[in-house]
Write a structure and sequence with these properties.
Helix content is about 45%, strand content about 20%. Helix 7 crosses helix 9. The longest helix is centred in the C-terminal third of the chain and has 18 residues. The radius of gyration is 18 Å and the shape is elongated. It starts with a strand and ends with a strand.
Length: about 220
Amino acid sequence: MRLLLVEDSHTLQRSLSAGLSHSGYSVDQAFDGEEAAQHLLSTHYDVIVLDIMIPKSDGLTLLKQLRQRGDKTFVLILSARDTAEDRIKGLDIGADDYLVKPFSFEELLSRLRAMLRRTNLGEQEISSTLQVGELKINTIERAVTIADKAVVLTPYEYKILNLLLRRRGQVFNHDQLIDRLYSNSHDVTRNAIEVHVSSLRKKLRAAGADDCIKTRRGFGYYFEL
Protein backbone atom coordinates (compact mmCIF):
# COMPACT_ATOMS: atom_id res chain seq x y z
CA MET A 1 0.00 0.00 0.00
CA ARG A 2 1.60 3.23 -1.17
CA LEU A 3 1.53 6.34 1.03
CA LEU A 4 2.77 9.90 0.60
CA LEU A 5 3.87 11.56 3.84
CA VAL A 6 3.87 15.38 3.58
CA GLU A 7 5.55 16.90 6.64
CA ASP A 8 8.20 19.61 6.92
CA SER A 9 9.70 18.40 10.21
CA HIS A 10 12.66 16.17 9.37
CA THR A 11 12.53 14.55 12.81
CA LEU A 12 8.85 13.65 12.50
CA GLN A 13 9.33 12.57 8.88
CA ARG A 14 12.10 10.22 9.93
CA SER A 15 10.20 8.60 12.80
CA LEU A 16 6.86 8.31 10.98
CA SER A 17 8.44 6.99 7.77
CA ALA A 18 10.32 4.33 9.72
CA GLY A 19 7.23 3.30 11.67
CA LEU A 20 4.97 3.22 8.62
CA SER A 21 7.51 1.25 6.59
CA HIS A 22 7.82 -1.27 9.38
CA SER A 23 4.02 -1.53 9.46
CA GLY A 24 3.86 -2.57 5.82
CA TYR A 25 3.43 0.72 3.96
CA SER A 26 5.55 1.88 1.04
CA VAL A 27 6.33 5.49 1.97
CA ASP A 28 7.35 8.45 -0.20
CA GLN A 29 8.34 11.69 1.53
CA ALA A 30 7.65 15.35 0.71
CA PHE A 31 8.76 18.28 2.87
CA ASP A 32 6.75 21.08 1.28
CA GLY A 33 3.69 21.69 -0.87
CA GLU A 34 5.55 21.99 -4.16
CA GLU A 35 7.44 18.74 -3.65
CA ALA A 36 4.20 16.99 -2.71
CA ALA A 37 2.46 18.33 -5.83
CA GLN A 38 5.24 16.92 -8.02
CA HIS A 39 4.88 13.49 -6.41
CA LEU A 40 1.11 13.59 -6.96
CA LEU A 41 1.46 14.43 -10.64
CA SER A 42 3.64 11.40 -11.33
CA THR A 43 2.56 8.75 -8.82
CA HIS A 44 -0.70 7.18 -7.65
CA TYR A 45 -1.03 6.89 -3.88
CA ASP A 46 -3.54 5.01 -1.77
CA VAL A 47 -3.25 7.48 1.13
CA ILE A 48 -1.77 10.94 1.69
CA VAL A 49 -0.80 11.89 5.25
CA LEU A 50 -0.75 15.68 5.09
CA ASP A 51 0.50 18.30 7.52
CA ILE A 52 -1.34 21.52 6.70
CA MET A 53 1.36 23.92 7.99
CA ILE A 54 4.02 23.29 5.34
CA PRO A 55 6.06 25.75 3.24
CA LYS A 56 5.73 26.48 -0.49
CA SER A 57 1.94 26.06 -0.67
CA ASP A 58 0.21 25.00 2.53
CA GLY A 59 -1.54 21.69 3.01
CA LEU A 60 -5.09 22.99 2.68
CA THR A 61 -4.25 24.61 -0.66
CA LEU A 62 -2.71 21.36 -1.85
CA LEU A 63 -5.79 19.43 -0.72
CA LYS A 64 -8.14 21.88 -2.43
CA GLN A 65 -6.23 21.56 -5.72
CA LEU A 66 -6.28 17.78 -5.41
CA ARG A 67 -10.07 17.67 -5.01
CA GLN A 68 -10.70 20.27 -7.72
CA ARG A 69 -9.08 18.03 -10.30
CA GLY A 70 -11.16 15.06 -9.18
CA ASP A 71 -8.49 13.13 -7.29
CA LYS A 72 -10.23 11.02 -4.63
CA THR A 73 -7.10 9.71 -2.90
CA PHE A 74 -7.69 9.28 0.83
CA VAL A 75 -6.21 12.20 2.80
CA LEU A 76 -5.47 12.19 6.52
CA ILE A 77 -4.60 15.66 7.84
CA LEU A 78 -2.04 16.07 10.61
CA SER A 79 -2.17 19.41 12.41
CA ALA A 80 -1.35 21.17 15.64
CA ARG A 81 -4.51 23.22 15.09
CA ASP A 82 -7.10 21.61 17.32
CA THR A 83 -10.18 23.84 17.22
CA ALA A 84 -13.48 22.57 15.87
CA GLU A 85 -13.36 25.26 13.19
CA ASP A 86 -9.99 24.00 11.93
CA ARG A 87 -11.18 20.40 11.78
CA ILE A 88 -14.41 21.37 10.02
CA LYS A 89 -12.52 23.46 7.47
CA GLY A 90 -10.15 20.60 6.63
CA LEU A 91 -12.96 18.07 6.31
CA ASP A 92 -15.11 20.44 4.25
CA ILE A 93 -12.27 20.99 1.77
CA GLY A 94 -12.05 17.26 1.26
CA ALA A 95 -9.99 15.52 3.93
CA ASP A 96 -11.15 12.05 4.96
CA ASP A 97 -9.84 12.33 8.52
CA TYR A 98 -8.11 14.81 10.83
CA LEU A 99 -5.57 13.92 13.51
CA VAL A 100 -4.33 16.53 15.99
CA LYS A 101 -0.66 16.71 17.04
CA PRO A 102 0.72 15.36 19.26
CA PHE A 103 -0.75 11.95 18.54
CA SER A 104 -0.11 8.30 19.27
CA PHE A 105 1.50 6.40 16.39
CA GLU A 106 -0.88 3.53 17.09
CA GLU A 107 -3.81 5.90 16.64
CA LEU A 108 -2.37 7.01 13.29
CA LEU A 109 -2.16 3.38 12.18
CA SER A 110 -5.72 2.78 13.36
CA ARG A 111 -7.01 5.79 11.37
CA LEU A 112 -5.16 4.58 8.27
CA ARG A 113 -6.58 1.07 8.59
CA ALA A 114 -10.08 2.47 8.95
CA MET A 115 -9.70 4.51 5.75
CA LEU A 116 -8.22 1.65 3.79
CA ARG A 117 -11.05 -0.67 4.78
CA ARG A 118 -13.34 1.63 2.79
CA THR A 119 -11.61 0.44 -0.39
CA ASN A 120 -12.93 -3.07 0.31
CA LEU A 121 -9.37 -4.33 0.56
CA GLY A 122 -8.89 -6.50 3.61
CA GLU A 123 -5.98 -5.58 5.81
CA GLN A 124 -4.34 -8.93 5.14
CA GLU A 125 -4.47 -8.25 1.41
CA ILE A 126 -2.96 -4.81 1.88
CA SER A 127 0.32 -5.70 3.45
CA SER A 128 0.65 -9.13 5.01
CA THR A 129 2.73 -10.85 2.30
CA LEU A 130 5.46 -9.76 -0.06
CA GLN A 131 6.79 -12.31 -2.51
CA VAL A 132 9.23 -12.36 -5.40
CA GLY A 133 10.05 -15.79 -6.73
CA GLU A 134 10.65 -18.13 -3.81
CA LEU A 135 11.49 -15.28 -1.45
CA LYS A 136 8.56 -14.36 0.79
CA ILE A 137 8.10 -11.88 3.64
CA ASN A 138 5.21 -12.15 6.09
CA THR A 139 5.00 -8.53 7.28
CA ILE A 140 2.67 -9.38 10.18
CA GLU A 141 5.04 -11.93 11.69
CA ARG A 142 8.14 -10.25 10.21
CA ALA A 143 9.21 -13.67 8.98
CA VAL A 144 11.32 -14.32 5.87
CA THR A 145 11.35 -17.59 3.97
CA ILE A 146 13.01 -18.82 0.79
CA ALA A 147 11.40 -21.90 -0.77
CA ASP A 148 9.48 -22.25 2.53
CA LYS A 149 12.74 -22.40 4.49
CA ALA A 150 13.05 -19.83 7.28
CA VAL A 151 15.78 -17.19 7.01
CA VAL A 152 16.67 -15.70 10.39
CA LEU A 153 17.48 -12.00 10.11
CA THR A 154 18.33 -9.29 12.60
CA PRO A 155 15.81 -6.43 12.90
CA TYR A 156 18.03 -4.12 10.80
CA GLU A 157 18.55 -6.78 8.11
CA TYR A 158 14.78 -7.33 7.95
CA LYS A 159 14.10 -3.61 7.61
CA ILE A 160 16.55 -3.26 4.72
CA LEU A 161 15.19 -6.32 2.90
CA ASN A 162 11.57 -5.21 3.42
CA LEU A 163 12.26 -1.76 1.97
CA LEU A 164 14.34 -2.95 -1.01
CA LEU A 165 11.84 -5.68 -1.87
CA ARG A 166 8.87 -3.31 -1.72
CA ARG A 167 10.65 -0.78 -3.91
CA ARG A 168 12.54 -3.27 -6.08
CA GLY A 169 14.51 -1.62 -8.83
CA GLN A 170 14.79 1.67 -6.92
CA VAL A 171 18.30 2.56 -5.78
CA PHE A 172 18.80 3.70 -2.17
CA ASN A 173 22.06 5.25 -1.04
CA HIS A 174 23.42 5.01 2.50
CA ASP A 175 21.85 8.26 3.71
CA GLN A 176 18.43 7.38 2.27
CA LEU A 177 18.49 4.02 4.03
CA ILE A 178 19.44 5.70 7.30
CA ASP A 179 16.67 8.31 6.98
CA ARG A 180 13.98 5.79 6.00
CA LEU A 181 14.80 2.98 8.42
CA TYR A 182 16.22 4.40 11.63
CA SER A 183 14.44 6.71 14.04
CA ASN A 184 17.73 7.70 15.73
CA SER A 185 19.75 8.24 12.57
CA HIS A 186 22.56 10.11 14.36
CA ASP A 187 23.55 6.76 15.91
CA VAL A 188 23.81 4.99 12.54
CA THR A 189 26.90 5.22 10.34
CA ARG A 190 27.38 4.49 6.64
CA ASN A 191 29.70 1.67 7.66
CA ALA A 192 26.90 0.12 9.74
CA ILE A 193 24.66 0.05 6.66
CA GLU A 194 27.40 -1.72 4.70
CA VAL A 195 27.79 -4.31 7.47
CA HIS A 196 24.02 -4.97 7.59
CA VAL A 197 23.78 -5.33 3.80
CA SER A 198 26.79 -7.63 3.67
CA SER A 199 25.37 -9.87 6.39
CA LEU A 200 21.93 -9.88 4.71
CA ARG A 201 23.46 -10.90 1.39
CA LYS A 202 25.33 -13.79 3.01
CA LYS A 203 22.15 -15.11 4.65
CA LEU A 204 20.12 -14.84 1.45
CA ARG A 205 22.89 -16.50 -0.54
CA ALA A 206 23.10 -19.37 1.95
CA ALA A 207 19.33 -19.90 1.64
CA GLY A 208 19.45 -19.98 -2.16
CA ALA A 209 18.61 -16.37 -3.16
CA ASP A 210 22.00 -15.47 -4.53
CA ASP A 211 22.82 -11.96 -5.75
CA CYS A 212 19.35 -10.42 -5.43
CA ILE A 213 20.60 -7.29 -3.64
CA LYS A 214 22.70 -5.38 -6.13
CA THR A 215 25.10 -2.47 -5.76
CA ARG A 216 25.08 0.36 -8.26
CA ARG A 217 28.57 1.71 -7.78
CA GLY A 218 28.58 5.29 -6.60
CA PHE A 219 24.80 5.33 -6.04
CA GLY A 220 23.61 2.62 -3.62
CA TYR A 221 21.69 -0.62 -3.29
CA TYR A 222 18.64 -2.06 -5.01
CA PHE A 223 16.74 -5.36 -5.16
CA GLU A 224 16.71 -7.47 -8.31
CA LEU A 225 15.44 -11.05 -8.67
